[in-house]
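Record pair follows.
FIRST:
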Amino acid sequence: MTLEDMLAREAIRDTLAKYTMAGDRLRIGDFVSCFTEDAVIESERVPADRLFRYEGRAAIQAWQERWLRGEGGTHGATFVRHHLSTSRIVLEGPDSASARTYWAAWTDIGPDHAGYYLDTFRKAGEDWLIAHRRVRMDWEAENSLFRKAVPNSKG
């Protein structure tokens, strides 16, 4: 592994952390800045009413703005904390990488839902940004506060 490889991996980890903290705190500018201009974020392996797909920064930003405004009563949690654990980053070229990262979300009820991200990253200047994020859920609590949040935040 070269120094450049280590720096790339650390920059990707930084983007993962920035996305997580910005998303939990609804810091929309910071959240959207984690994505390439043409990025895609979509859910997979969830019930049909919770499938979503947003293409491009503008669509991702509009989605997050709906969350911030609480449109549809998104979830009612007083706090949300996504915890990232194991993350396998594979550098596929000088400007591209993929990653699989496990996560668990906690809310007022305790463990709320968990799954993993399948990401494609692209280098943009000095930053490594998410070009495509597939959000897969493995588990959710029976009383998950997010069960209705995703359908309620769709545009």
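SECOND:
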Amino acid sequence: MSDQLPTVTDYQASLLTSIMTFSPSAPGSGLQVYQHNLQMTAVRSLSIAFPVLAAMLGEEAVYVLARRLFTSEKPCSGDWADWGRTLPALLRSSELHEEYPYLADIAAFEWAFHRAARSRYVALQADTLNSLTQCEPDTIRIRLQPSLTLVSSAFPLFGLWQLHRSQPPGRAPGLAELEAVMQTEESGCYVISQSTATTQVMVINAQEYQWLEGVKQGMTLGTLLDVYPTLDFAQWLTTALTNEWVTGLS
């Protein structure tokens, strides 16, 4: 019995595989055109999701990273903005990490900002705050914005992020500017979330960071107060409500 002829679907799947793996193709071929377009789309996508990282590295380095990332992380949807989640891990395992260890953390910071900016804002259910006076702390849990992400680093990520975002197009910060930021004393603890007006970044202290980690893990208010007895809950709640981190209590 003769081998079954490939179907149109088989051919399309093979073509897509060839394109998405950047396999070599003859110069000037139709496949090479598709590959080039895909590569440029990947580079643009990373530059949009990670603008500060792209400014730090330059176009050639972003091109190389895009090719490497594509081998381990394929687009999971029809939207390229969903692609890039594993770039921080890729940077940590790259030859850049030893000399520039802060790049992976910058990538994680920018990915959190990028995802928060694309997330839905959830309004506060103010009536649920009544449980603070009506229920025992051990029965209360704090609900946070779905977009809220915690990032920590040994480097002043917020300062580096702000410095690069403040530069005119095509201009990189000077060495003196970079050194000044690297010498600043940031806590290295950040909250990134979506609010009604914008995507915001807040620098917090280590105890506030640990408290928020506990909230995200589902700890009750009673447990949090026991674990972090020196944290001023009333003050924290005021800050959290002002920054629209909290969506309610349950």
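COMMENT: Strands lie at 142-144, 149-152, 189-194, 199-204, 246-249.
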